[in-house]
Amino acid sequence: MNYQWYPGHMTKAMRMMQEDIKLIDLVIEIVDARIPFSSRNPDIDELGKNKGRLILLNKSDLADPTGNAAWVDYYKQNAITAVLIDSRKGTGLREIQNAVQVACKEKIERDRKRGIMNRPLRAMVAGIPNVGKSTFINSYAKKACTKTGNKPGVTKGKQWIRLNKSLELLDTPGVLWPKFEDKTVGLHLAMIGSINDEILQTDELAYEIIDFMKANYPGELSRRYGIEEDGDRIELLERICHSRGCLGKGAAPDLGKASGIVIEEFRSGKLGQITIERPE
Torsions phi, psi of 253, nearest 5? Predict the structure, then answer.
């Protein structure tokens, strides 16, 4: 499949962000720790090119610890400030205030020389759909400032959140870019749930997940479903059908139902801590 999704409201959202960027000192980009490359919108790179930058690798609890370590090292080598976080549990959030100061060091120094002291930094929180921006803001602010959900597109407008005397956040809707030139990017976004599931063929996505798990995390499908991993993707999905009782008339395998289970359990971490992309 060729995975593409760019609903019309994203054009409006990006236009709004372009208007607001002049008010911003720092762009905090939330990415999914399982796919740090594919979950970075290149348009946000362009938008924030003259601003301080901070990358938060969210959902790090769902990613392979070795993958997390590799990405932190990669960003460090490329002089990018990055922090591993888990917004739901609050892991890593204490490191952010210091990381903000590091990312805005030049801005703070310029203000100091001009006699501007203790002015709050204004940060735009940006990212693609379903990487956990709103959950991060609510956890960081320790209150329910924004709507959250486990599907893309929950945040529709912008809102300012004053965290403390030194930092204000601007929440923005999740935005993708008009066309994924690399088909692998679209696939990886679909795997973690950043593309609307209603436009996907769930069985095809489940087959891709099965192939990925066999190649990169052998034994995990067997552990979770009690099946043998020899055979092709169709055979494995049929075995999962029988293992989970996804059967129709005449005990025929219900591939659609089993596909939904595989996708949900992959995304939620029930198949283990998984990193899909690693630094080259």
Answer: -60, 130
